[in-house]
Amino acid sequence: MKAMILAAGAGTRLDPLTRNVPKPMVPIVNKPVMEHIVELLARHGFDEIMVNLHYMGDVIRSYFEDGSKWGVRLHYSEEEQLLGTAGGVMKVASFFDDTFVVIGGDDLADIDLSRLIRYHKDKRSLATIVLSLVEDPSQFGIALINERGRITRFLEKPKSETIFSNTANTGVYAFEPDIFDLIPTGEPYDFGMHLFPKLLQLRKPFYGLLTSHYWSDVGHLEQYRTAHHDALNGRVKIRFPCPETRRYVWMGDGVEVDPSAEIGYPVVIGPNCRIAAGAKVLEDSVLGAGCVVEEGAVVRRSILWDGAVVMKETMLDRCVVGAGCQVHSNAAVFEGIIVSPTRNNNGPWSHANH
User: Fold this and answer.
1) How confident is residue 159, by pLDDT bands cut at 50, 70 and 90?
2) What is the SS3 assignment for 109?
3) What number of H helices and E strands is found in the chain?
4) Coil, strand, or helix at residue 139?
5) 24, 241, 268, 319: least CB-packed within 10 angstroms?
6) Where are the alpha helices (DSSP H) in 49-122?
7) φ and ψ of 2, to 5 deg
8) Are 72 and 38 within 8 A, CB to CB?
9) What average pLDDT does the structure give for the chain?
């Protein structure tokens, strides 16, 4: 089966984290969020996957290569100018010859894609979107469905006075190749803004599947932190990159923990980290590979990307620290973001110090 991952966006809503890394490469428990999506697709039998690229596309391509590491075959579509969600898929229309799935490369989800395909085919639908109940519908497209699951109304990112539902579009879709008859070629075109209203206008078979499975758009910093919290607390079924060495503690190879250090839970500590004397790595924290927490430092509810250093007697709470950044001694940082302003050529993430 074939699928497409939308990975061309610049991720401006997650700034400044995405100044140095494309949004699909932002790590969730030490794996790029798009890697979790590739694994989800592979689990449900999607082995031919197209990925569209634009912003820092070379970083995505160099990490995933041909996809063989995940048991899939990846193909890439470079967009010199962004074509929108539907326009990007239209650009590679010839790739699809049967029912296919489209999914965002910057979402965290464990949606049952096999059920989606069954539902889509049972309804003989042209387009089926996965829907999820949300607290704030204004950030998403919203839909109404009738008792048969057919979508009767759809509105993209409604203003507060026009909200008629809290059933949100997850950006996970199943389509028939005939959908390409309705999408213009070579111009920006969006699913939510353009295609879905057209489907309703033309009375095409357009259905929604309401899911209780986990789905989160990690487009904002708060959502990014919440996605980590949900992963650490078992609310989303994903594969952690290192084993669970004791209950709710996942630890990679080569980790050094001083006997006087305190490790709380749930936490993920990547390979080759060093936790020094008197240091504390407490609940809901994730340390990437090669991180250092120096003497007396405290890390709580924070995410450290690869190679980050928390220096002596420093406290971090609800922070995100970019790759290779140093948080200097005797600081206390709450709800902060610490990133390098520049990207170098050593890999997906910058290693400049701050």
Assistant:
1) confident
2) strand
3) 6, 30
4) helix
5) 241
6) 57-64, 84-90, 113-122
7) -115, 150
8) yes
9) 92
Distance, first Cα to last Cα, the chain: 45
Domain map of the chain by residue range? 2-232, 244-338
What the block records as the tokens of 194 is 């353009």
Nearest to residue 240, comparing CAs of 275, 271, 206, 201? 271
Distances (CA, A) of 303 to 49, 63, 229, 273, 319: 30, 21, 10, 14, 6
Q: What is the mean pLDDT of residues 60-76?
A: 97
**Residue 341: its pLDDT value, please?**
52
DSSP symbols for 218-282: --SHHHHHHHHHHHHTTSS----SS-EEETTEEE-TT-EE-TT-EE-SSEEE-TT-EE-TT-EE-
Query: If you count them, how many residues does the chain have?
Result: 354
- What is the model's pTM? 0.92
By CB neighbour count within 10 A (0-12 exposed, 13-18 middle, 19+ buried), where does 330 fall?
A: exposed
Q: Which CATH superfamily is domain 244-338 in?
A: Hexapeptide repeat proteins (2.160.10.10)
CA 321 to chain centre: 18
For residue 316, the cross-strand partners are 299, 333
Q: Characterize 69-80 residue by residue with b for buried, 16 or more Cβ atoms within 10 angstroms of its Cβ, and e for exposed.
A: ebebebebbebe
Fill in the amino acid letter for 158: P
* Single-letter amino acid code for the residue at 15: D
Q: What angle do CA 149, 153, 159 make, to 5 degrees?
A: 130
- Give the tens place of pLDDT for each residue, 183-214: 999 899 999 999 999 999 999 999 999 999 99
Contacts of range 40-44, beta carbons closer than 8 Å, 24 or more positions apart = 40/103, 40/109, 40/110, 40/111, 40/113, 41/3, 41/5, 41/72, 41/101, 41/103, 41/113, 42/70, 42/71, 42/72, 44/1, 44/112, 44/113, 44/114
What dotted CATH number matches 2-232? Answer: 3.90.550.10
